[in-house]
Write a structure and sequence with these properties.
It is a single chain. This protein is α+β, with helices and mostly antiparallel strands. The chain has helices at residues 3-18, 122-125, 258-268, 271-282, 318-326, 342-361, 365-374, 395-412, 415-428, 436-447, 452-459; strands spanning 34-35, 53-65, 70-81, 85-91, 96-102, 105-106, 108-112, 115-119, 133-142, 146-148, 154-160, 163-167, 187-196, 200-203, 206-213, 216-227, 234-237, 240-245, 251-256, 289-295, 311-313, 334-336, 432-434. The strands form 5 sheets. The chain has an 8-stranded mixed sheet, with no helix packed on it. Strands 10-11-12-17-14 form a 5-stranded antiparallel sheet, with no helix packed on it. A 4-stranded mixed sheet has the order 1-4-8-7, with no helix packed on it. The longest helix is centred in the C-terminal third of the chain and has 20 residues, at 342-361. The N and C termini lie far apart (68 Å). Mean pLDDT is 94; it is low at 1-29. Bound molecules: tryptophan and zinc ion.
């Protein structure tokens, strides 16, 4: 302890004694920090995420035995304090924590539901000042859980025909690693997975090494671009893999379960073409790697836009591949600030499908818009204000969101300007987070138009207007 610290601690303790513990806040400017919040008050998932720090990097080392359904992990989390911290939380569902250190020294661990609280010793606490970067290591193990979402779908750690897959939208990453499980805190990742020989572990980004040792193989994946926790994945099983490079230098890595590999080959070959087609419309592809993971039908109930490498339960058709790939721009690079902003993901990804269908099959976007407009389902609630957490994955967020995008295109009334607007959006918020308010402000500023009427009717209105325009 340095001299200054010890003096302040003494003064603080003396002050406390004098005030008979009535003013613990009198000490917050001194040595003691305060606990980081246990949640980020997301409108739909208030306990997700944690306050007081910002993760910059996750290093996850996992040892997985799919047959025994067991996982052993070491999570090394590099974070920057956003306040003076006395303790802080990580989100973790199930599993057993063996030990935790902060800045290399043992920290006290408390579990309460899905909140893991780490309390460093006094010496470390004195270093957890606002702005400081600190390192936390959590060792944990157990049988990872499958979580059920408010909409009844399953996520977290899913068992598959010959292994497992981790899918995390909206909450499931906490089933396999401790972290700040909210889209507003993005970080780079190193994910190292050791699996029994003969199995492959596929994750996000670039495969930086693969090494065999006796009965196991270790795969090391690295994604340098910021990633929200819900987009992290690990798929373990038997996979036919294929690597190539696009003309733009993006690494392509595809993995298909051998049971569906033959049926997937044709569509997987189109990954570079689809990435390029979208890059022309949405701006430069935001990551250094791309690809896809194709499991068997039944491995999951839905596809997910896992960063740089979407997951599909069975061979996708072109429309679905276009949808998940569009999320690489809308969702993965430009990530919602909270789960209320979900329509920014699904509206754009759905609109990408409409554009693709027009381009490839000649079915006009306007027709898709008209059909969406006529469908009662799409008017159940406003895209930007789903009534409950179960609704963030429902039709008004997808088709209703796509209708908002199309109305903007009509308001701009010039396709060159519209696509420049879209590319400007992905550029302005590239690798960041954006809210609905950020979006409407961006559109109004860029177009110079007052679009209050459009937002009120199409984004916040929630009932079908009398006319389509
Ligand atoms: N984002 C996925 C897609 O449309 C679908 C999805 C999976 C989802 N899990 C979700 C949407 C949870 C909202 C909430 O490509
Ligand atoms: Zn989607």
């Amino acid at each position: 302890m340095d001299q200054r610290t010890s003096v302040r601690r003494t003064a603080c303790a003396a002050g406390l004694a004098l005030l008979l513990l009535t003013a613990s806040t009198a000490c917050t400017g001194g040595v003691e920090g305060t606990p980081g919040a246990a949640g980020l008050r997301d409108p739909y998932f208030p306990k997700l995420g944690n306050g007081g720090y910002d993760v910059t990097h996750y290093d996850l080392a996992l040892d997985v035995d799919p047959a025994a359904h067991r996982l052993r992990g070491t999570a090394t989390i590099t974070a920057r304090a956003t306040q003076d911290l006395s303790s802080f939380n990580l989100d973790l569902a199930g599993l057993t924590v063996q030990s935790a250190t902060v800045e290399g020294r043992p920290a006290a661990v408390n579990r309460a539901g899905r909140e893991l609280t780490l309390r460093p010793d006094a010496e470390v606490e004195s270093r957890l000042r606002k702005g400081r970067t600190f390192r936390t290591v959590v060792r944990y193990s157990g049988s990872p859980q499958t979580l059920t979402d408010p909409d009844e779908s399953e996520e977290g750690w899913l068992r598959t025909a010959d292994g497992s897959v981790a899918l995390g939208e909206p909450t499931g990453s906490m089933a396999w690693f401790p972290g700040n499980n909210h889209p507003s805190d993005k970080a780079s990742y190193d994910i190292t997975v050791t699996v029994p020989k003969g199995l492959t572990a596929v994750s996000n980004g670039e495969l930086t090494s693969r090494s065999a040792s006796g009965t196991t193989t270790t795969y090391h994946w690295h994604i340098a671009e910021p990633m929200a926790s819900y987009l992290a994945t690990v798929a373990i099983g038997r996979f036919d893999t294929k690597t190539s490079t696009t003309p733009d230098g993006i690494e392509v890595f595809t993995a298909a379960d051998p049971a569906v590999a033959a049926d997937s080959a044709g569509i997987l070959d189109r990954v570079p073409e689809i990435v390029e087609w979208e890059a022309e419309r949405f701006g430069p592809y935001p990551f250094s790697a791309t690809g896809a993971i194709v499991g068997r039908p039944g491995d999951a109930e839905y596809a997910l836009e896992t960063q740089s490498r979407p997951f599909f339960p069975g061979p996708p058709d072109a429309g679905l591949l276009v949808h998940e790939m569009a999320h690489q721009w809308f969702g993965d690079s430009v990530t919602p600030e909270s789960w209320r902003d979900m329509w920014l993901n699904e509206g754009f990804a759905t609109y990408a499908e409409w554009l693709w269908e027009e381009d490839q099959e000649g079915n006009p976007v306007q027709k898709r818009f008209d059909a969406a407009f006529d469908d009662d389902e799409n008017w159940a609630f406003p895209p930007a204000d789903p009534p409950t957490a179960a609704d963030i994955s429902q039709a008004p967020v997808y088709e209703g969101g796509a209708m908002v995008i199309h109305r903007i295109r009509q308001a701009v009334d010039d396709d060159k300007r519209f696509f420049a607007l879209v590319r400007g959006w992905t550029k302005a918020y590239r690798h960041g987070n954006a809210s609905t308010a950020d979006f409407t402000a961006y559109v109004e500023k860029t177009t110079g138009q007052d679009l209050t009427e459009l937002w009120n009717t199409w984004l916040y209105g929630g009932s079908r207007p009398d006319s389509k325009d």
